[in-house]
Amino acid sequence: MRVECKIDAACTDPRAVLYMRQMTTAVAEAISILEREGADCLPLTAVRDGKTYFLEPGSLELIRTEGREVICYDKLKNRYRLDGPLYELEHNLGEAFVRVSKSAIVNIRQISHVSAGFNGSLELVMKNGIEDYISRSFRKAFKERLGLK
After folding, report:
1. Structure pTM?
2. 3-class secondary structure, 104
């Protein structure tokens, strides 16, 4: 792979663009390292059992609305309540997260598998076993984000 790096002291928005035929494990790891390097995302404050926790975004698997609350689940299936609307979280979480429906955002590094679902949707299973779905209106963007056809 050919790599090019340009150093510019005036650069205020560093970015990396990769052109490739398919995603590989090595490239996914490199992306993860680059995202952490430029991460200015602070830990999220969340509430569970009356206590406030500071959660690193990378430890989260799924964030979704349940009723009128925004709930997130970590790798151990712990359930936390977050403040703020889902669209704001989506904007602040960074490249590791993708919107899969009007009511859910997932960490793409924590997806176990996806299978065909009901009425054109795709069923999504996270590594911690929690299930959700990718709605038809978000399916194309989801596949593009993962480099799938």
Report:
1. 0.70
2. strand
